[in-house]
Write a structure and sequence with these properties.
The protein is mainly α and 208 residues long. It contains five helices and no strands. The chain has a domain of 117 residues.
Amino acid sequence: MRKQNFKPLKMNLQLFAKESEGNSAGDSSGSEQDNTPGDGDTGSEEPENEESSEEDASLAEQLAELRVQNAKMKKAMDKAASDAAKYKKQLREKQSVEEIALQEKAEKEAEREEAFQKLLKENTVTKFEKNFLALGYSEELAAKAANAQYDNDTEELFKIQQDFQNALLRQKEAEWAKSRPNPPAGNSEDGTEDAFLKGFNSVSNLRV
């Protein structure tokens, strides 16, 4: 038998390497394509993001509007409190002015009444004083008696009258003593009363 010479087959390893790399690249590309969101997936996420953004904007607008309303309300409350305090102060000042006016009015009326009563007393006392002077009272006793009569002080008036009578008696006695002649021993021959006895009897009658 003839021996056949078998030549060893040279294996192109580079070809296998390229094919392996190509297969790996294909697998990798396929996986990337699978992981990459398609057109349908992108379209479903974008409306959700837009709705969320619209809701956030609406909430922000509502919050801003509430803040504006709160600020307006606070400003209105502050103004109302300020107006109330101002009105209360004005009311107190007005009441104080009215009270002062009433007090001044009462004081003026009291002054007028006092002046009227004083004038009335002066006129009345002057009238009474003239009456007592006509009775022979001294100016001092006449003024005291007139004031006592005006004040209805009967005790003081009686005392003044008693002083007046005592002063009048002393005056009569002094006048009689000055005008007393030298007394004779008794009655005159014609039966007339002695001048000394006559004066003495008149003074005695005043004491009674």
